[in-house]
Design goal:
Helix content: 25-40%
Oligomer: single chain
Order of helices and strands: HHEHEHEEEHHEEEHEH
Number of strands: 9
CATH superfamily: P-loop containing nucleotide triphosphate hydrolases
Distance between the termini: 23 Å
CATH class: Alpha Beta
Number of domains: 1
CATH architecture: 3-Layer(aba) Sandwich
């Protein structure tokens, strides 16, 4: 599998190893690094190679918890009867990429807590199981960058690995070009 990954990704061996270790042990992974280091490409390529469903959520300041978990929508049937129907959010997948997780406020970040711990989400009065397997791989910009929020401690505790993603070496950059 690593050989297949290296057909797409140059370098980042430690990052790849730690993501795979998290996935194969049922954990979640937090990737920390500046934009442009192929974090998203690594995760989407792994999902493709594992042949599992993959979704990406771009975390932004205006993202709401229901944009992650899903929501109940009121529908009217042909007979005029109104009922709520649950519409799944992007968390209903096998590998979820929570991209730039620290660009959204803590209230929205916390929408992933139950999903990561219990592999289910509760919307309204109903709890929904997530597909198996379920993994969250989140990316985070360095906290010093403008427009970022610190991850709550409870959120940080849900990640098995906190992986620092560095710039490629000069040799790796030459291969990329």
């Amino acid at each position: 599998m690593v050989e297949e990954l290296h057909k797409v990704i140059v370098g980042q061996d430690e990052v790849i190893d730690q993501i795979l270790a998290a996935i194969f042990t049922g954990g979640h992974c937090l990737l920390v690094g500046v934009p442009g280091l192929a974090k998203t490409l690594v995760v989407s390529t792994i999902a493709k190679l594992l042949d599992v469903n993959f979704r990406r959520i771009q975390f932004t300041p205006d993202l709401m918890p229901s944009d992650i978990t899903g929501t109940n929508v009121l529908e009217e049937s042909d007979t005029g009867r109104r009922e709520f129907r649950f519409v799944e959010g992007p968390v209903f997948t096998n590998i979820l990429l929570a991209d730039e997780i620290n660009r959204t406020p803590p209230k929205t970040q916390s929408a992933l807590l139950q999903a990561m711990q219990e592999r289910e989400v509760t919307v309204g009065q109903t709890t929904y199981k997530l597909p198996e397997p379920f993994f969250v791989i989140a990316t985070q910009n360095p906290i010093e960058q403008e427009g970022t929020y610190p991850l709550p401690e409870a959120q940080q505790d849900r990640f098995m690995f906190n992986v620092k993603v560095d710039y490629p070496s000069l040799e790796e950059e030459e291969k990329i070009l």
